[in-house]
Amino acid sequence: MTTTPTTGGALGPACLDKTRSDLEWDRLLDAIASRCSGPLGERATRSLPFCSSCDAVRVAMQETHEAFDLLVVDEPLPSGGGPVIRDAVDRLRAGGALGPVELRDIAKALGLARTLRRFLQARRDRAPNLLRACETDTHLDALEEHLTAAFDPDGTLSDKASPRLRELRSERQAARERLLRKLEDIMQRYSITLQDTFITEREGRFVLPVRSDSHERFTGIVHGTSASGQTLYMEPRAVIPLGNRLKVVDADIEREENAIYASLSAELADQVESIAAAELALAHAELRAACARLTLDLDLSFPEVVDEPLLDLRAARHPLLQLDGVRVVPNTIRAEPGKAVIVSGPNAGGKTVALKTLGLVALMLRAGLPLPCKSTSQVGVFEFVASDMGDDQSIAKNLSTFSAHVRNLAAILEGTFRGALVLLDEVATGTDPREGEALASAVLDGLCARGGAVVCTTHYEGLKALALGDPRFVNASVGFDLATMSPTFDLMIGIPGASSALAIAKRFGMPSLIVERAERFLGSEERGFEQLVRRLNDERRALELARAAAEREQQESERVRKQLESELELARTRERRQISKETESLMSAVRRAREELRWAESRLKSRKLDEPRLREAARSIERVAKQVAIGGELEPPRDGEPILGEPLESHDLHKGLRVYLPRIRCEGEVVDVLSGGQVRVAAGAVKLIATVEELRRVGASKPAAPERPVRKPPRVAFDAASDPQSPIQTSENKCDLRGLRVDEAISMAQQFLDRSLNEGRRVAFLIHGHGTGALRDAIRTELASSPYVLRSRAGEQSEGGEGVTVVWLR
Predict the structure, then answer these.
(1) Confidence band (pLDDT; 50, 70, 90) for 672?
(2) Given this model, what pLDDT does residue 504 score?
(3) Do both 670 and 697 map to the same domain?
(4) Domain range holding 201?
């Protein structure tokens, strides 16, 4: 095996067939293919290529990520069920004509490609990479429509395919009907000689069932007999010319249909490369959709791909074990160029699983697939993955287990370079342990010197000791619980593992006497090393448990913090809504005050009062409006007006303090203490900011508010007479009050009139219906004292009569 690094951004072959077999790569492809919705995607999956560059890996992962994002929002790619048209495309390239089935398959494929293209174009912001990969030639749309129109739903050529075909089919129908009529006439005349009264076909000719003992009295051609020999199927001589004519027409129809197929094939041949690209787009989309489904099923992730060859996996899982439904223990493992991870521990503890997990992740990354690890993992593409796993002994080739391993190791050493990942299971076993250990040490040293990233499993104590004096080597171990005598499948980095062979032997029935004798055969150094490793593993496990508990506490603290933030934001939202509601109520009052001003101006003008008094009244009301409006200016104390109450100091201020505000002559409550000696005060529905100098303690005498005469709203006369210039009723100026209670109708009418006035309308229609008249009377009584209303009247007959009241606004 000779593999050299490639130059530039291109990558060489990802692995050899042996590595594919060792890692069971084809089983993973089977899992993806089973999630495809048709043969097109299955074929694309079985031949899934490894990406030729790191950029291609990133793009492939982004495409699957986009397909996954669409899948989780229930918008899967519409690519399934496409037919395989590769053979038909090859025939078109060779200049051949296609048959009806192939033509219909191409029409279906083009229709699916059009649907896919439009689906992705509508989601170009969410799936730009998929759109680039699956966009097809828009000129194929017209070709697809032409193909589809040429066939009927049952798959036969349509009469519309050509005028000649329609003419021939009509002629055939007429010839057939003439033939059948003639046969029915003969059947009635020769009923005695017939076995039964039906018309059937034999050898493509219409025949009658004639009794074998009477066929001499029936002239014609025999085209077959029944199984019993009692019936002869004969074509009467009188219909032979008609049958011949039908055959001629059938031949003409077949020639015309073949001519149409050839014509359609020629049209397709002109765009054969675009058609081939459309099939590839469908296959690509179906592959990405299947990868997205696998991502959802196995909880795969999309880590960022770095430029250097590196696998630093967090919570890595073996995907094939997940597919088998086996409980998988996630593990952390790292492989980088020039270093070797030496995994030790008991048999059946998960060493080989960790090795295969790393290899599968490397190949999945090279193929641009999502990975079975956390998204926080660091992953970089290894150009080549080599492995030596299992037993390759061969009697036919005169190879022992050790010989087969040595042959593989020699080939791997020859082909290793920086950017290669090497996976060795039980390196250099099957020979004398001391020589095997020495050979394994030399092989690992040589692989690291060549820049390979190496991960191996072993029981050799000498390999575990390499990490003590050489930073290129890192120990790792799989856990084993001596209390339960079972593996934990946890991979622990930095600690060598004990094989625990004697403990496992005792667990599986080896006599205690034999186990004790074996322990005595072990030297004190070996026993001490085993005990040290176990103690380190126990301490490591305790630290892991403590770390997990700390992480849980941190997560709980984070959850509580987020909950408190959410509750605080909810409270702020409620406060903002309340302020908005109070502001709207206040502004409504201001609008009503201004309407009263207009009413006052109207009444004053009617009495011919002087203009200065009118302007002064307007200025007074506007000053009041500014004082009560949120954000408006507060009127300062008038010159000479005494400031009552005891002044406050900054240290006196706190939330909930009742204060008096001379500027607006009312009490309020401090709701917030601001910087710079300012506070936010709530006075009824109004909230304003004031300085400490403006505030006085509550309890001081406050000036009595001057008495104001109570002004009654004007009474508006109800005019029952019709208006010579009737206003036009529209959807914007009418309010339907039918079906409401009186209080609800009055409230709704007031709101409608207020809104109409603000929007500049001068006429409104209130629809209250006839009924008992109670709602009508209540509405008109309310209108008589409304400050919005200039005058009102009942609707004219064309407007709804007494069921409608027309209102003119001020």
Answers:
(1) confident
(2) 67
(3) yes
(4) 161-249
472: domain CATH number is 3.40.50.300
Q: Is residue 601 part of a domain?
A: no
Residues 283 and 397 in one domain: no
Give the CATH number, domain containing residue 772: 3.30.1370.110
615-628 confidence digits (pLDDT tens): 655 555 555 555 44
Amino acid 187 reads M
The pLDDT value recorded for residue 614 is: 56
On the question of pLDDT at 8 being above 70, the answer is no
Task: Please provide residue 33's backbone torsions phi and psi, each rounded to the nearest 5 degrees.
Answer: -60, -35
Residue 366 and residue 508 share a domain: yes
Q: Quote the tokens at residue 239.
A: 């219909």
Burial 690-729 (b: 16+ CB within 10 A, else e): bebebbbeeeeeeeeeeeeeeeeebebeeeeeeeeeebeb
Residue 471 CA to residue 206 CA, distance in Å, equals: 93
Q: Of 27-31, 655-659, 738-742, which has the strongest mean pLDDT?
A: 27-31
The per-residue DSSP string of 236-293 comes to EGGGHHHHHHHHHHHHHHHHHHHHHHHHHHHHHHTTHHHHHHHHHHHHHHHHHHHHHH
Judgement on whether residues 345 and 403 belong to the same structural domain of the protein:
yes
List Cβ neighbours of 533 (8 Å cut-off, separation of 6 or more). Answer: 477, 495, 496, 497, 498
Does the structure show a pLDDT above 50 at 604? yes
The reply to whether 366 and 417 lie within a common domain is yes
Amino acid of residue 587: M
Give the pLDDT of residue 810.
73
- 529 within a domain of the structure (yes/no): no
- Amino acid 277 reads A
> What own/partner pairs with CB < 8 Å and gap ≥ 24 does 705-712 have?
705/665, 712/785
pLDDT tens-digit map of 381-427: 999 999 988 755 443 444 456 777 788 888 888 888 888 999 999 88
Report the predicted TM-score, pTM, of the whole model to 2 decimal places. 0.61
- Distance between CA atoms of 787 and 238, rounded to whole angstroms? 104
Q: What are the Cα distances from residue 632, in Å, to 13, 577, 710? A: 76, 20, 26
Say yes or no: 687 and 771 in one domain: no
Q: Residue 210: enclosing H or E segment and its boundaries?
A: strand 205-211
In a domain, 173, yes or no: yes
